[in-house]
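FORM 12-B: Structure-to-Sequence Request
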């Protein structure tokens, strides 16, 4: 039996926006109510942990009220004939709720908390609130399991290794402007196929064998998935 081709999906905020989740660049969205320096940095946590917890509680509630859309569901269909890994910049769990089995979160997971004493201690959050006084087993306050601005991206090396084994790389809903994550497109091996989906123009310089779909994820991704599945027959 021949080895199943490896398809890597690299997703960003655009795919979740189609489920109603506010993105960092939205006008009038959740992020507009806050200064990013006051809610999404290590200094913000040190200066006002209450405000940080409130902000992420709001985001978490929004995620819980959202549902996977056509793009999330299309990705799952690929698992019928391919080895599929999702690498996402998103902190929501819509890929998992759609049914994707292998998901790597570069920027953390909104429905989890972690210890401020030992970052390896990670916990599921029941419901949507994480509050002052919620502590790990060592008595340390729990913080959102999120990679804040100014922090290292611990899953980056793993993501590069996964992408380096891709036969097909599909980027969807990401501007390819946020580094280091945007550099993943250059980790794909020579000879691999690259599909880029975004309703806005994205930088494609230095990339070969790329097909650009200037469209929403929910429109373009099901089309690409169908073509890939048909080609595998």
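FORM 12-B RESPONSE
SEQUENCE OUT:
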């Amino acid at each position: 039996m021949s080895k199943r081709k490896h398809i890597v999906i690299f997703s960003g905020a655009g795919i979740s926006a189609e489920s109603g989740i506010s993105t960092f660049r939205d006008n009038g969205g959740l992020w507009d109510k806050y200064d990013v320096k006051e809610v999404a940095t290590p200094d913000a946590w040190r200066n006002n942990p209450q405000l940080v917890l409130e902000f992420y509680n709001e985001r978490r509630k929004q995620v819980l009220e959202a549902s996977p859309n056509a793009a999330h569901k299309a990705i799952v269909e690929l698992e019928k004939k391919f080895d599929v890994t999702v690498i996402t910049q998103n902190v929501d769990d819509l890929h998992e709720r759609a049914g994707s089995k292998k998901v790597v979160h570069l920027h953390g997971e909104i429905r989890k908390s972690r210890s401020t004493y030992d970052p390896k201690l990670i916990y599921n959050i029941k419901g949507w609130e994480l509050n002052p006084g919620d502590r790990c087993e060592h008595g340390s306050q729990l913080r959102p399991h999120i990679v804040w601005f100014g922090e290292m991206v611990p899953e980056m090396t793993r993501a590069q290794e996964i992408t380096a084994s891709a036969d097909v790389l599909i980027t969807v809903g990401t501007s390819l402007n946020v580094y280091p994550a945007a550099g993943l497109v250059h980790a794909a091996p020579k000879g691999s196929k690259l599909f880029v989906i975004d309703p806005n123009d994205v930088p494609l310089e230095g990339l070969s064998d790329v097909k650009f779909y200037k469209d929403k994820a929910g429109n373009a991704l099901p089309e690409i998935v169908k073509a890939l599945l048909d080609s595998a027959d």
